[in-house]
Amino acid sequence: FTVREANLISVSSAHFKILIFIVVMKLQSAAPGKVVCEMKVEEEHTNRGGTLHGGLTATLVDVVSTAALLYTERAMPGVSVDMNITYTSAAKIGEDILITAQILKQGKNLAFATVDLTNKATGKLIAQGRHTKFIGN
Predict the structure, then answer these.
(1) In whole angstroms, what is the distance from residue 137 CA to residue 121 CA?
(2) Model confidence pTM above 0.85
(3) What are the residue boundaries of the Thioesterase domain, all occurrences included (predicted)?
(4) Tens-digit pLDDT profile for residues 92-133
């Protein structure tokens, strides 16, 4: 199973340029409330320093935690209320990373998830995200 997230290729003008990328993740495992995906860091995923871009990390936290939420009995994607990420180390081009999302609690109106991005080879934590979503009516 491959997940592809594609945003417009690129938009340019005299004042700005937005580079959009393609993210390819492979689903490694899924259990109710827990999803693990794998991704290889490619050049288009990096910042000027050649490491995994923080904005892409935030996107991964959002997307994979939502996938874990969809893999629960209620299967509701919800709407983001709060999301924060702590960046602890860098992921370089060519490194494989694991993105592990776990639903901590699903209440009547809110769901809470954590997402760990780790280096597949070393297990070193790259970033940890926390995501709160509104899942009520």
Answers:
(1) 42
(2) no
(3) 49-123
(4) 999 999 999 999 999 999 999 999 999 999 999 999 999 999
